Fold:
Amino acid sequence: MSLKDRLSVVWKNRYLRYGSIFAVLVIVLLLFYRKPPVPTEIYRVARGTYEAYIEEDGITRVKEKFTVFSPASGVMMRLNTHAGDALKKNELITHVMLDYMRPVKSPASGTVLKVHRESEGPIEMGTPILDIGDTTKLEIVSEVLTRDVVGLKPNNNVVISGWGGGTLNGKIRLIEPAAFTKVSTLGVEEQRVRVLIDFDRPKEMGEGFQVRCRLISKQKPGSLTVPVGALFREGESWALYRVVKQRALKATVKIADTSGNTALVESGLNEGDEVVLFPSEKIRDGVKVR
Structure:
């Protein structure tokens, strides 16, 4: 019997005919109402160095700056020295004339940073004339909140960026012992402490450059970490969605610490696990994802 004859026999059988039609309808409905996999961003958990850090702006400055003042009241001769000029120690800068010409000399070798007074004319004793310093010896001053500075120590590493060039490495030299009050851009009074940072100065950098400092309080190699964007609160605990066989499964994890966008995992995850980043409202336990 040919295939055509067989199909004719089946079609003439009322029960087989209706059953076949019903089965086709069920399959069509299942395909129509089946929810497609939810598109997600997936992260594979790996081991690396966990860094606890804080980020603050900083300003470069000459380590030793000298301000030259007028030694007497009188008439100062016009300066022929300008910002950027190099001076040697005891080099003549100008004269101040009272009853006789009093020379004004450079107290140290360095570069003129700023000229306060250039024109010839009367001048009072103690009036600043210019600033001089060795621009090859710079440091960075970063003003850190007191609640953040407690985790920092001298010799901690600092990653420096945002100055217009590549990333630089530095170390904390000194954390000043006294805090001060500073008003933030939002008008809030804050208690801050100055942190002084040593670094290798690139030749393109001078005094007064604004930089971004990542001050590292601790480093833990071989740590299991996960992006903070994968975590959400589940009561008093942290939770996330693990991806198992293309399905999102809710899991509780224990987080030891967080810093920036990274969380240090204590338990609940293994190396190589895949987790959902930034889970949307469509992500539920057991939902298929891709």
Remarks:
- The mean pLDDT is 87.
- The chain has three helices and 21 strands.
